[in-house]
């Protein structure tokens, strides 16, 4: 009987901690330690907020990092995209209607504020901050935690845009359920960000001239000398329910080949410091070879709404 009571108590504490992280994600962003949830919202409010906020995390392993023990930027980008895809897909299916999967369409400029090391825990919190008729804006924060000392630090901030694609017809973009804003200013600011990224996206085009052509016997310390290519055969684990490559997988490959180029040129260990805005213009299907030298990547159609 005592064992049953103790187990029940541990389950209750775990449920409170999980509920607290799902409700706010604020503790992750501000670097606070875990604490039981305070009763500040009703159950209905918590269920509604669950569509707009998510928190997830895992410990960093040796295969996530370089030889110096620093976690690859591509690994973090992949985790960011996974969190964004989960929360966007959940929100887009929160109402009755045709089922869909959220596909990554754009990633804004992302800076890597602090390195993350093997053995640390990566906490990823994602929040929906704006929705248009056919797109979702997700803001993601990444915290690293040293589980030996309890020290936490902010490593990444990212803004991603997703569009919901129908499970029945991958070329059909569905409407996004609106979110409720606590202040009118938040909606107006979100609309400005949407219009700005939409304009920037329209200015980018797919140009074959951007492809770097290989050069035979290049001279040392030139662009051609450090040029590298990385070809990856797409498998089921890389793909969405539609059979197309996850945006996070594409970004991870892009980071890997960029790291090879930088290390070859600098002849030392390197880390990812920043990633400019990335637009996803077309899709890459399962069982296709994907070259990381392509100037743009796969995942979703236009954000036009």
TrEMBL record:
InterPro entries on file: Cytosol_ACT (IPR040170), HOTDOG_ACOT (IPR033120), HotDog_dom_sf (IPR029069), Thioestr_dom (IPR006683)
Gene Ontology biological-process entries: acyl-CoA metabolic process; fatty acid catabolic process
UniProt xrefs under CDD domains: BFIT_BACH
Active-site residue list: 66, 255
GO terms for MF: carboxylic ester hydrolase activity; long-chain fatty acyl-CoA hydrolase activity
Pathway named in the protein's UniProt entry: Lipid metabolism; fatty acid metabolism
Keyword set, alphabetical order: Fatty acid metabolism, Hydrolase, Lipid metabolism, Serine esterase
Gene3D superfamilies the record matches: Hotdog Thioesterase
Source species, domain of life: Eukaryota
Domain HotDog ACOT-type: 50-168, 224-305
One Gene Ontology CC term in the entry: cytosol
Pfam family, one: 4HBT
Protein name stated in the entry: Cytosolic acyl coenzyme A thioester hydrolase isoform X9
Annotated organism of origin: Cricetulus griseus
Gene encoding the protein: Acot7
């Amino acid at each position: 009987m005592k064992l049953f009571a103790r187990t029940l108590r541990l389950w209750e504490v775990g449920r409170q901690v999980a509920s607290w992280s799902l409700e706010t994600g604020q503790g992750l962003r501000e670097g606070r330690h875990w604490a039981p949830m305070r009763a500040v919202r009703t159950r209905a409010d918590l269920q509604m907020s669950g569509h707009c906020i998510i928190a997830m995390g895992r410990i960093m392993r040796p295969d996530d990092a370089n030889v110096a023990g620093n976690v690859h930027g591509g690994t973090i980008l992949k985790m960011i995209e996974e969190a964004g895809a989960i929360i966007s897909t959940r929100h887009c299916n929160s109402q009755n209607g045709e089922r869909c999967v959220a596909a990554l369409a754009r990633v804004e400029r992302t800076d890597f504020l602090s390195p993350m090391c093997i053995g640390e825990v990566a906490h990823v919190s994602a929040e929906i901050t704006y929705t248009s008729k056919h797109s979702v804006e997700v803001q993601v924060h990444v915290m690293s935690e040293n589980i030996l000392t309890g020290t936490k630090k902010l490593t990444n901030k990212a803004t991603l845009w997703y569009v919901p694609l129908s499970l029945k017809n991958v070329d059909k973009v569905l409407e996004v359920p609106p979110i409720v804003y606590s202040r009118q200013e938040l909606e107006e600011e979100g609309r400005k960000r949407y219009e700005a990224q939409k304009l920037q996206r329209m200015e980018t085009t797919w140009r074959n001239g951007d492809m770097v052509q290989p050069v035979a016997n290049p001279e040392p310390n030139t662009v051609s000398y450090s040029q590298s290519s990385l070809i990856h055969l797409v498998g089921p684990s890389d793909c969405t329910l539609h059979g197309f490559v996850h945006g996070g997988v594409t970004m991870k490959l892009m980071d890997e080949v960029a790291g090879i180029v930088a290390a070859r040129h600098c002849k030392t260990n390197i880390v990812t410091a920043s990633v400019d805005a990335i637009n996803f213009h077309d899709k890459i299907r399962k069982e296709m070879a994907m070259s990381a030298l392509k100037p743009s990547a796969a995942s979703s159609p236009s954000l036009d709404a």
